[in-house]
Amino acid sequence: MTALLGLYTFEVRGEPKPQGSKRAMPIYRTVDGQKEWTGKTAVVEQAGVPLKTWRGDIIDAAKDVVGDNPPYQGPVGINLWFSLKRPGNLPKTKQSWPVKRPDIDKLTRSVLDALTSAGVYKDDSQVVILSVQKLYVGDAGSMPTQGVYIEVQKVVPDSNWQPLAVAG
Question: Residue 67 belongs to what domain range?
Answer without folding.
Answer: 2-157
